[in-house]
Design goal:
heterodimer; A: mainly alpha; disordered C terminus; B: elongated
């Protein structure tokens, strides 16, 4: 198992490194001269030269790559042109709100998916199963940039129960978290349903029922645990959807997070910030998935033997 | 589910066709800017209200359907063709080719969600061609993984071994005997992929990264957020259209999956 985990860690690191090279190449692939694009054609020659040096564009490609990589290792992601501050500091300032939003969205998703998925998987074909199926497929198809404005319209504009945007009070997080968490809730409900409906028929459930274990305990103590394992993997994979969904959600609700920083940087052609945010988001995504895979191997030893065969 | 899925497909098809045809007729009219008619609520002048430039929302939604359809179908056709070819060849040839191809897939899949598409359109500039390119780069990896997995199973089948002993070339085996046999799961994947591509295109336009010359549901929705208080109707129609199309495609994909992929739930 140790060897497998080590291999998974190496794979994750290699993917992250290659993604870094790709993102690094992107910014050099801007058609024309990136300095022209960023400063405009009328810029002073001195300003252009300064920017060229700041970005390291006067050096050969591989030297630039090595320099940026050395910077990355030190935690230096370059300088923002719009803010005239280190990119790493900018991202660190915005990471908190994004983490709060993502955590709240995941909590809401679990709170919706757990009862729905359990109830529908335990009684496939029942009315609650049909209802949860409709909710799940609608939730997956509902674009968050439509759900968000609709929630704003009802709860902020018409009912005036909740703030319309920004991050001032704890109640500001409710609407963005629902917007971001709905698709995830739908996905988790589906996974839980299929997991529970499969284990429901397992021999150990029949055996436990024969021993007189009450139905409620069968579901909550015996069937839930095996059904949770695929859910953890899906949660890991869905971190990607949560991160990119955060970009949209933060834009709708003017949430001061990393996603909005990315969009502002794209609009302001602040390429070092674009590069830094894409790198950090990719790193978080790869990191979480690698850890989930490793945790999975520890929790479920069958995976080890399956991979060894 | 099959009956419902079929209904959903038909509805989606009809709705899209009507929009696409309608957009040709209202195309000119919807492009006309009439500032004196700006932000009119739904009424006799415009059934779904007007946008900040006085154009009828109904016409813009119709024109947006055409954009969504073109980008969704083109990017999935490109991504599907390229991905299936790469995946099938990698799975059949194996060895170093397979390792390199799958490493590239892994790296592209390391980017969360549409972040890669955001980065590509930010760098290349927002235009129809670049959006299709970005969505193709984003989408082919799923097809490649699927095709590779299927080919790994198929190439052990007796019929493939039989053709091999008859001396068929690798190219012929892949294109004539393997790819036709994985079209079922590929069709299922393509249905979901069109829904995903339409959503991704709208997301990009919502974020201001769409082609500014083309009407788009995402662009209309971002306009809607800006005028949420004064003109809530801006947010309703384009979002409902997008939701209906994506929902129908997903239901259709589910129905196809039940049919084409045994054991799918």
């Amino acid at each position: 198992m140790g060897a497998l985990i080590a291999r998974r860690l190496v794979e994750g690191t290699v993917s992250a490194l290659l993604a870094f090279v790709l993102v690094f190449s992107f910014i050099r692939m801007i058609p024309g001269d990136p300095v022209d694009l960023m400063l405009g054609e009328q810029a002073q020659p001195a300003a252009r030269e300064a920017l060229r040096q700041n970005l390291g564009l006067d050096r050969p490609f591989l030297v630039q790559l090595a320099g940026d990589f050395a910077g990355l290792v030190r935690g230096d992601l370059g300088q923002s042109m719009a803010y005239r501050r280190p990119v790493a500091g900018l991202i660190a300032d915005r990471a908190g709100p994004t983490a709060i939003l993502a955590a709240a969205a995941i909590l809401i998703a679990i709170a919706i998916a757990l009862p729905l998925g359990l109830a529908s998987g335990w009684q496939p074909g029942s009315r609650i199963d049909s209802i949860s199926r409709i909710i799940a497929v609608s939730g997956i198809s509902l674009p968050n940039f439509w759900l968000g404005p609709l929630l704003l319209l009802v709860f902020a504009v018409w009912l005036r129960w909740l703030p319309i945007g920004g991050f001032r009070s704890p109640s500001s997080v409710i609407l963005p978290a629902i917007t971001l968490g709905t698709a995830l809730a739908a996905m988790l409900t589906r996974m839980l349903r299929s997991g529970v409906s499969e284990t429901r028929q397992a021999m150990f459930i029949t055996a436990a029922r024969a021993r007189g274990v009450p139905e409620r305990n069968l579901l909550l103590k015996h069937a839930l645990r095996p059904a949770l394992i695929p859910v953890i993997t899906i949660l890991g994979l869905q971190i990607g959807a949560v991160l990119s969904g955060a970009v949209i959600t933060e834009t709708i609700f003017q949430w001061p997070g990393v996603g909005r920083l990315l969009i502002e940087a794209v609009q302001g052609r602040d390429y070092p910030v674009v590069q830094g945010v894409v790198l950090i988001m990719t790193g978080v995504y790869v990191g979480v998935n690698t850890l989930v895979d490793c945790a999975y191997m520890v929790v479920d030893p069958r995976i080890d033997t399956a991979a060894a065969n | 589910m099959n009956g419902r899925g079929l209904t959903a497909t038909t509805v989606a098809g009809i709705v899209l066709a009507v929009w696409a045809i309608a957009s040709i007729f209202v195309g000119e009219q919807s492009g006309t800017v009439a500032l004196d008619l700006a932000l009119q609520p739904p009424g006799r002048a415009a059934l779904l209200g007007t946008d900040p430039l006085g154009r009828p929302v109904g016409g813009l939604v119709a024109a947006g359907a055409r954009t969504a359809l073109i980008i969704g179908l083109c990017s999935v056709a490109l991504a599907g063709t390229f991905g299936v070819l790469v995946g099938a060849v990698a799975g059949y040839v194996g060895g170093r080719v397979d390792a390199i191809a799958m490493r590239i897939v892994d790296v592209l899949m390391a980017f969360p969600g549409i972040i890669l598409a955001i980065a590509i359109t930010a760098i290349l500039g927002p235009s129809l061609g670049n959006i299709v390119l970005a969505l193709t780069i984003l989408g082919w990896t799923g097809f490649a993984r699927l095709a590779r997995g299927q080919v790994l199973q198929l190439k052990q089948q007796p019929y493939v071994l039989a053709i091999q002993t008859q001396g068929a070339t690798a190219g012929r085996i892949v294109t004539r005997h393997l790819i036709p046999n994985l079209l079922g799961p590929v069709t299922v994947q393509a249905t979901f992929a069109v829904a995903g591509a339409i959503l991704a295109e709208s997301s990009l336009s919502f974020l201001g990264l769409g082609d500014p010359t083309l009407p788009s549901w995402g662009g209309l929705l971002s306009e809607g957020v800006r005028h949420l208080r004064q003109a809530p109707w801006l947010s309703l129609a384009p979002g409902a259209a997008l939701f209906a199309v994506v929902l129908s495609l997903n239901l259709c994909g589910d129905a196809l999956a039940d049919r084409a992929v045994p054991g799918h739930h």
